[in-house]
Amino acid sequence: MSWVSHKNSRKMKISVKFTNFDKTTYIELNDSQSPKTVKVILDTLPIQVEINRWGDELYTDKTPIVAEEENAQSVVNRLDVAYWPEGHSLCLFYGPTPISKSPDEILPYSPVNIVGKIISKDDILDHIKHSTTVIINKMLEK
């Protein structure tokens, strides 16, 4: 595993490959806010799981990733990636959820551990209408 260090935080890229169509989203994990959670995620990958849409959030079904709340947030930013302890799920936030009170506010269902950012240029949301299978894996350094 190869980490890039920046001022006491470590970063690593992972991929989310959508098996039903030829699309992959890239995420940069950053352990600055939730280091224990990021470690558990990396130790658990690769995983194959269903991903679903809730407003402008994509969230996985229950995964084998198990972590406690760690600096959990009730409001997130666009393109944040989080771990949802209540559902043992990864969440990708592209915009407001059904419980957001305004277009500028992104509210998870319950507090989440921020673990990284979506770094892909493509917005995958247009392709997700129903549950679809994804493979989440570490990216190998060249």
List the helices and strands and how they pair.
Elements lengths: L3 E3 L2 E10 L4 E8 L4 H10 L2 E8 L2 E4 L19 E5 L4 E5 L19 E6 L13 E7 L4
Antiparallel strand pairs: 1-2, 2-3, 2-9, 3-8, 4-5, 4-9, 5-7, 6-7, 6-8
Helical element count? 1
Structural class assignment:
mainly beta
C-alpha end-to-end distance:
12 Å
Mean pLDDT: 91
- How many strand units? 9
- For the biggest β-sheet, the strand order reads 2-3-8-6-7-5-4-9
What helical percentage do the residues reach? under 10%
Per the CATH scheme, the topology name is Cyclophilin
Question: What percent strand?
Answer: 35-45%
Order of helices and strands: EEEHEEEEEE
CATH class: Mainly Beta
Shape: globular
* Rounded Rg: 14 Å
Just name the CATH architecture: Beta Barrel
- When the domains are counted, the total is 1
Kindly list the characteristics that best describe this protein.
142 residues, mainly beta, Cyclophilin, disordered N terminus
Brief digest:
With 142 residues, the chain is mainly beta.
Description:
This protein is mainly beta and 142 residues long. The protein has a single domain, classed as Cyclophilin (Beta Barrel), CATH 2.40.100.20. Helix content is 7%, strand content 39%. The chain contains one helix and nine strands. An eight-stranded antiparallel β-barrel has the order 2-3-8-6-7-5-4-9. It starts with a strand and ends with a strand.
